[in-house]
TrEMBL record, chain A:
The lineage of its organism: Bacteria, Bacillati, Actinomycetota, Actinomycetes, Micromonosporales. This is Uncharacterized protein. It comes from the Bacteria. It comes from Plantactinospora endophytica.
From TrEMBL, chain B:
The keyword Glycosyltransferase applies. The keyword Transferase applies. It comes from the Bacteria. Keywords: Glycosyltransferase, Transferase. Residues 58-207 form the Glycosyltransferase subfamily 4-like N-terminal domain. This is Glycogen synthase. Residues 223-361 form the Glycosyl transferase family domain. It comes from Plantactinospora endophytica.
Length: 190, 415
């Protein structure tokens, strides 16, 4: 398969070494790899190649209306104010102050208040139509590109893989499903 | 020898090198590389366990999706020796229950091949539970199933009543059963004395065709290859090295491998003042590890228990003397060659036995050794052609050739 476009689902993040080996193979074959994760913290220690596109479902989830409003109030609005105030000689100090605000206040409020409220009140509503993160993945990633190969990299990605495969197949864009990329990058046998 | 036997062979194994575990089952890969060129078609079915610890409410959804996806996600691709490889994940919650593990491997294999029997008259499995069980229950009715046991955790398997009963059945129904050494055969014979005659030996193959460029002239560059684990005796090795280096400042030590003791060993090397003489090379691919053997002067292998001791034979094949514990497999592998290949030492919880062993070896090196003789004799038993011959005799002639297997294909619920 020449220059394969590979979508890698590694939501559990439990087989990171295998994923890195697969990504290296895809890049070596001249292809592109898009890695979908649900907790970027698990990948913090891994050296991800710069050619790899990483999609963090937790970040993607921030595009849902309740979290988007929360982010507007908590992050983007104050960010705009810091930028407006920090002109000229105040620019450096303003940037530092914004970063400190994000770390000390915005991130904490998001983790301790915003996310729990979303999970309790809104997520059950969204979940009635299936995992909302996968709908976002479909809208912002799958519909924007072509994927020849769907690689399922860990047990926790199985349900998501079934949904993604069904979505792509329904659009007439069924990828080749595999559990390690060398199985499809190698010349087919027999 | 290329005999081109017009027959198909299926190999079923839970262990085979992957991106996640590049070294696990390297000996199975070596067995395939040694045997496959002689046959029309060899297919390796790697039932790769993907254990998870996810919540029970998630497990049902994972299981349902996995069952739906598995038949569509497995592909045949080339591997060593002209064989094909079918890699299939066995997704299941982590469990110590070997009976349950075996049933899951059996089902995964069956599902991945489309609920039809393995299309080969000979099926060779690695690891009794789960590999042998999965092979037995997926072989076609006229197939003969052979099993090679390598596991170091047999005691854990045999202390579980259901797993023990399954093992007994496996031994009863398979056409031939092999252990890679007496350390594996002995507990099996003790547990199943009624099958003692059926449990033979078959070694792991070793490459003898890449010796070092120049012979070792001094035992200065020590090498350890294996996991940095308590069972491997690496802490005692570091202590012993520091003592020996105090007498011989030219000594160096390289650890090839990874494991839970890496940090402790690094810290201890600093405390002992030998940091500059100790290298942690990390885990290396098999070819790189073999190159390291050719570039060092002495393989030190102070393991507490080994079923075979493949690394030791690999070192001798590379022309490197060995200092190794009598920990099960090695003394059997080196029987009659102890003095020619290096020095064997007892398994003791101290550094002194390693230090004493090194001094004895150093004092009689090089004239007290005969590595070429050790290489010749080990190659007769463990080289690729020798191991290929052993398998051929088992599968198509000689011992076990006439024996039959009672496969489980008709008893579908057995799996």
């Amino acid at each position: 398969m020449a220059e394969p476009q590979v979508l890698i689902l590694a939501l559990e993040g439990s087989r990171r070494l295998a994923v890195l080996a697969d990504v290296a193979q895809v890049i070596a074959a001249g292809g592109t790899a898009t890695l979908v994760v649900s907790d970027m913290a698990k990948w913090r220690r891994e050296k991800l190649p710069k050619q790899l596109r990483v999609v963090d479902l937790t970040k993607l989830e921030l595009r849902l209306a309740p979290l988007a409003v929360e982010q507007l109030v908590l992050v983007r609005g104050p960010g705009f104010l810091f930028k407006a105030v920090g002109r000229g000689p105040l620019a450096g100090g303003s940037k530092k102050a914004n970063r400190a605000y994000q770390r000390a206040f915005a991130d904490r409020v998001h983790r301790r208040v915003g996310l729990p409220v979303y999970r309790r009140l809104f997520q059950p509503l969204y979940a009635k139509k299936g995992d909302p993160r996968l709908r976002l993945l479909d809208r912002y990633v799958l519909q924007q590109g072509r994927f020849d190969v769907l690689l399922v990299a860990d047990p926790g990605s199985m349900p998501a893989a079934a949904t993604v495969l069904a979505n792509l197949t329904a659009r007439g864009a069924a990828p080749t499903l595999c559990f390690d990329v060398s199985a499809v990058l190698s010349a087919p046998v027999g | 020898m290329q005999t081109n036997i017009a027959s198909d062979v299926a190999v079923v194994t839970p262990w085979y090198p992957t991106g996640q575990r590049p070294f696990r089952g390297a000996f199975v890969q070596a067995m395939v590389e040694a045997t496959a060129p002689e046959y029309r078609r060899v297919t390796v079915y790697h039932t790769d366990e993907w254990g998870h610890r996810l919540p029970a409410e998630t497990t049902a959804a994972i299981d349902e999706a996995y069952r739906a996806l598995l038949p569509h996600g497995v592909h045949r691709r080339p591997t060593v020796g002209g064989a094909d490889l079918v890699h299939l994940p066995v997704v299941m919650p982590v469990t110590p229950d070997y009976a349950e593990i075996s049933r899951n491997h059996t089902e995964a294999l069956r599902s991945s091949i489309g609920n039809v029997p393995l299309d080969a008259p000979v099926v060779h499995a690695h690891v009794g539970l789960p590999g042998g069980w999965a092979a037995l229950h997926n072989a076609r009715p006229d197939a003969r199933v052979f099993v090679t046991e390598h596991a170091t955790f047999l005691n854990l398997v045999l202390e579980q009543p259901e797993a023990r009963a399954m093992y007994d059945e496996l031994l009863h129904r398979c056409a031939g059963f092999f252990a890679v050494g007496d350390a594996v055969r002995k507990p099996l014979v003790e547990a199943f004395p009624h099958h003692a005659d059926k449990i033979g030996f078959i070694p792991n193959p070793i490459a003898f065709d890449q010796p070092r460029a120049t012979p070792v002239t001094a035992l200065h560059r020590w090498l350890f290859v294996g996991g940095l684990l308590p069972r491997k005796g690496v802490s005692w090795l570091l202590e012993a090295f520091a003592k020996c280096r105090a007498e011989e400042p030219d000594l160096s030590l390289t650890f090839v491998g990874e494991g839970q003791l890496r940090k402790d060993l690094t810290r201890r090397a600093a405390e002992l003042g030998v940091t500059e003489a100790v290298t942690f090379a990390g885990a290396l691919p098999p070819d790189e590890a073999l190159r390291m053997m050719r570039e060092h002067d002495l393989l030190v292998h102070p393991s507490r228990f080994e079923t075979f001791g493949m690394t030791i034979v690999e070192a001798i094949a590379a022309g490197t003397p060995v200092l190794v514990t009598r920990c099960g497999g090695p003394e059997e592998t080196l029987a009659g060659l102890e003095q020619a290949a290096g020095e064997l030492i007892p398994v003791e919880e101290n550094a002194e036995s390693i230090v004493d062993g090194y001094r004895r070896l150093r004092d009689r090196f090089p004239h007290g050794l005969d590595l070429p003789r050790a290489q010749r004799e080990l190659a007769d038993k463990y080289s690729y052609p020798a191991v290929a011959r052993s398998h051929r005799e088992a599968w198509f002639g000689g011992a076990g050739a006439g024996a039959s297997t009672t496969t489980g294909w008709d008893a579908r619920t057995d799996g």
